[in-house]
Design goal:
Helices cover about 40% and strands about 15% of the residues. It is α+β, with helices and mostly antiparallel strands. Helix 9 runs antiparallel to helix 10 and helix 12 packs antiparallel against helix 13.
């Protein structure tokens, strides 16, 4: 089954409507061309080094404690005997049964205690930088440009026009169930048209029969993924050169762009991830991972607001929902690791969402000190599934 996801870019653009309005299309494209080829700034970026110091330090710290027993937390929860694990990444180990207080003999009301083992932190893989070949595949003149400089230039350029270009790009003909090598698109702005169509899927599951795998199509500018994803092979050539060398076109234009297959551990989180790579808006990403919006100034005042907010989340929403939404954070982390993305703000946001859910689970299960205290005294089940190693 093939699905075209053409509205996600429109929703992302709408989330940016409070941002400062950009200048004209011509000046935007000229700004990007100039900034990305500025020799002085290239040299400054090159001499600053290619490694991300903050990420490397955090990764080393987590690697040193990853084998510690205290690196996981055991939640003991009460649940009905016929309640299965709410997600496939949470495995509940049976403990002693807890008799129901009900006077009837309905077995569905029998309660029991189960142990839920959850990783205390999301582990971080070894840092690596984007290969020059990946950038050169997007534009030949980027072969010797530091990747960090390319990323900074994209953000200076601004995401609004790029997202609007994606939302205004539609297939010229209906998409069939057969994955084509290229796709005809009608675009409103040729200067900033998408360069590729990503066919995102999760691989074929054992339960799926031949031809039943779901594939979702997303238009994208190759420079966005190439500048961030260290494990993504170079993009195939596209007739559209991202953000450059395109002549202005009045009215809609029809183009053909390559279709590229992308298998991810959690394809449902692709749109959230790419949205962040375009906008770098941490609040939008964080809200998409939580069951309710964060309070004002939450990210700036985490020390004072995190625990009260997490407790509110834990007291408001049912445990199965919390576990299901926590899996979304886990799925995003899986995608980030699979693609090799090492953006500090992205990792900080995933860590923050994970920490919120840990405290929310503690509130939901009335084990308020289990997150901040030692977990070594808690019963250790023989296996766990929400882990990050």
């Amino acid at each position: 089954m093939m699905v075209l996801q053409s509205n996600f870019a429109k929703r992302m653009a709408e989330n940016l409507e409070n941002s400062p309005s950009p200048v004209t299309k011509k000046s935007l494209v000229a700004k990007f061309r100039t900034s990305i080829t500025d020799a002085t700034r290239r040299r400054r970026a090159r001499t600053s080094g290619s490694r991300n110091p903050k990420y490397v330090v955090e990764q080393a710290k987590r690697r040193s404690i990853t084998k510690s027993p205290a690196n996981s937390i055991n939640f003991r929860i009460r649940t009905s005997a016929n309640l299965s694990s709410p997600t496939r990444d949470v495995e509940m180990q049976d403990a002693e049964p807890l008799a129901s207080t009900s006077s009837d003999n309905d077995s569905s009301r029998t309660m029991k205690l189960v142990d839920l083992k959850v990783a205390r932190e999301l582990s971080r893989p070894e840092f690596r930088e984007v290969a020059s070949e990946a950038l050169a595949a997007v534009r030949a003149d980027l072969a010797k440009t530091p990747p960090e400089f390319v990323r900074d230039s994209i953000q200076e350029f601004g995401p609004r026009k790029l997202l609007q270009a994606l939302s205004g790009s539609k297939p010229s003909a209906p998409v069939t169930n057969a994955l084509p090598k290229e796709l005809a698109m009608t675009v409103q702005d040729l200067a900033m048209a998408p360069t590729h169509m990503m066919a995102v899927h999760g691989g074929r599951r054992p339960s799926e029969s031949q031809g039943k795998s779901k594939v979702t199509l997303f238009a994208v500018h190759s420079i966005i993924l190439a500048a961030h994803c260290t494990k993504l092979p170079p993009f195939p050539p596209s007739p559209i050169t991202s953000l450059s060398e395109q002549k202005d076109a009045s009215g809609p234009s029809e183009i053909k762009i390559p279709v590229r297959s992308l298998c991810l551990p959690c394809p449902e989180q692709y749109a959230n991830l790419v949205s962040f790579l375009y906008t770098k808006r941490t609040s939008i990403l964080l809200n998409s991972l939580l069951p309710c919006p964060i309070p004002p100034n939450f990210e700036e005042d985490q020390v004072n607001q995190l625990r009260p907010f997490a407790r509110k989340v834990g007291d408001t929403f049912a445990l199965p929902l919390l576990l299901t939404r926590m899996r979304q954070v886990f799925g995003l982390w899986q995608n980030v690791c699979a693609l090799g993305i090492f953006d500090d703000e992205l990792w900080d946001t995933m860590d923050l969402a994970w920490d919120i859910y840990l405290h929310a689970l503690a509130a939901s299960t009335k084990q308020y000190d289990i997150v901040d205290g030692s977990s070594e005294s808690q019963p250790q089940p023989p296996s766990s599934t929400i882990t990050s190693s």
